[in-house]
Amino acid sequence: MAVLKLRYLGDPVLRAKAKPVARVTKRIAKLLKDMEETMYAADGVGLAAPQVGVSQRLIVVDVGDGPIHLVNPVLEEGEGAEVDREGCLSIPGVFGYVERYARVVVSGLDGNGKPIRVEGSGLLARALQHEIDHLDGVLFIDKATGLVQAGEEPGEEPQPGGEAPSGWDAGQPGAGGP
Ligand code: ZN
Description:
There is one protein chain. By secondary structure, the chain is an alpha+beta fold. The protein is about 15% helix and about 30% strand. The protein has 2 helices and 8 strands; from the N terminus they run αβββββββαβ. It has a 5-stranded antiparallel beta sheet with strand order 1-2-3-6-7. A hairpin with a 2-residue loop joins strand 4 and strand 5. The C terminus is likely disordered. The structure holds zinc ion (ZN). The site of zinc ion has 6 residues, from helix 2.
């Protein structure tokens, strides 16, 4: 496994619509593993392939219950609404409040090419929606209200790839209720 180089806001790959994966090959399985390692190295809860410069429909998510790999993820169901604080590994130090479905069902393929369905609520639902948005070139800052730059607060510097609070993708637990 390898930690991949993160792409940041301003990189056109983050605004491109990612292409579906035709077949889950060994190369795709390895890429998912590398994305997982990259996500952990950056203390993120999710990562989408465009964030490592690959314009293909692949995401990894881990909100503390183990890694989930999804190829060609599709949001099948969404219900309820929840507003919570969100950040993104590709936009270090910036946070805002985003309304998302409170509960979602996502279908796709796993790293072995087998169909899977993932049901999630709370942070998992948020992370899945945030990462799927990445595949369509949509960033959380497009939807967020109350955006703040952490560096504008005393004692906090935005550091690309650095420590908290810039280390999150998709959300920050405990940063506010529903
Ligand atoms: Zn993100």
